[in-house]
Specification:
By secondary structure, the chain is an alpha+beta fold. The protein contains ten helices and 13 strands. A hairpin with a 5-residue loop joins strand 5 and strand 6.
Length: 352
């Protein structure tokens, strides 16, 4: 019974600790991933700023993150006009691209459109610059950029950096647009995993989890010690025959001390030796109590005594009696080999 209790308690502790550990890691992962995406986007904007400066173009080059609340409340024009060597033309503005542009400054957007239309961004070149800024910010991960440019006629040209097997949708950090109308769509990827984002949190969480299970184990031992201590107080430190006489037949507590450190809790069907416990089935439990009531005869039970108590319906056989005694002997010797049950004339004797 105690073993089953321990297994159930351990299973409950493991489940509760596992659930807490999972949600703690999930929260830490989502929080750090959000921070990573924010830093990655910030370093990418710095890389674009660096790329613009390489063109040696004069003008305001300070970028700002899109303020979605302000942008959405502002009135968005239907189109924007451009003049180049071909002439003047209008391009329809896309709201989604507009809201996800890397800057809210209309002048800088126009500057981006002119510069990068004449001198398109090379993904590999921009990716190298982005990696430098990533490293400076403490992010040492592989990076990939995929840039899609749309011309005035709606034709799309996609140019990715060198192909990488790890590059997939789950590694997408952000998607931004550069310029006005014919915007360039940039999809940025980082080679990250749950482990390299929250490995310290996982290690710390596992250590806390182990300590938690250890504390549950120690607490269980403490409680069991208290219970055993209370049970020992209930055991009368007198010869067995006197314990039997002092205990009334209606008492719910029947504990027998066979010798030092060996206690038989008849009411709980448990034998205990040096802190170790073993549950007894009903028949061995009843048989052991019968033996202990026979102190005057030297703890000897006749076959008729055993059969009359264990099989009152008269179905007892010598083989059944022998097996019942053997089962009890085996249970006792698992805890204390010094106690034995020997065959004698027309019965058995408990040797303490």
């Amino acid at each position: 019974m105690m073993k089953i209790y321990n297994i159930i308690l351990l299973a409950i502790a493991v489940c509760i600790g596992g659930v807490v550990f999972f949600f703690a890691c999930k929260f830490a992962y989502e929080s750090k991933l959000s921070t990573l995406k924010h830093k990655a986007k910030g370093t990418f904007i710095e890389a674009v700023n660096h790329e613009v400066k390489k063109r040696k173009v004069d003008g305001p080059l300070v970028f700002t993150f899109p303020d979605i609340s302000n942008i959405k409340t502002a009135e968005l024009p239907d189109s924007v006009s451009f003049t180049d060597s071909i002439g003047t033309y209008k391009l329809k503005l896309d709201k989604e691209k507009h809201y996800n542009n890397i800057t809210t400054d209309t002048g800088i957007r126009s500057l981006h459109s002119i510069i990068f239309r004449e001198h398109p961004i090379q993904p590999d070149s921009l990716n190298i610059i982005w990696k430098e800024y990533l490293n400076e910010s403490g992010i040492s991960m592989e990076s990939v950029l995929c840039i899609s440019a749309v011309d005035r006629f709606g034709n799309v040209t996609s140019t990715p950096t060198s192909y990488s097997e790890w590059c997939k949708f789950s590694n997408l950090m952000f998607t931004v647009y550069i310029g006005y109308a014919c915007e360039m769509k940039v999809m940025a990827y980082l080679n990250y995993s749950v482990w390299n984002i929250i490995y310290w949190e996982i290690i710390l969480g596992l250590l806390i989890y182990i300590v938690y299970l250890y504390m549950i184990y120690k607490f269980n031992l403490f409680i069991r010690g208290k219970i055993n201590s209370m049970r020992k107080r209930e055991v009368v430190e007198k010869p067995i025959i006197k314990i039997v006489k002092e205990m009334s037949d209606t008492s719910s507590i029947r504990s027998y001390k066979l010798h030092e450190d060996f206690i038989f809790h008849a009411d709980q069907k448990v034998i205990e030796f040096n802190g170790q416990q073993k549950n007894l089935q009903t028949q061995p439990n009843q048989l052991l109590e019968l033996f202990l009531k026979m102190e005057k005869t030297g703890y000897v039970l006749r076959n008729s005594d055993i059969s009359g108590n264990l099989w009152p319906d008269g179905s007892a056989t010598n083989d059944r009696i022998h097996k019942a005694v053997a089962r009890l002997r085996s249970n006792i010797k698992e805890l204390d080999p010094s106690i034995d049950i020997k065959k004698c004339v027309d019965g058995y004797q408990l040797v303490l």
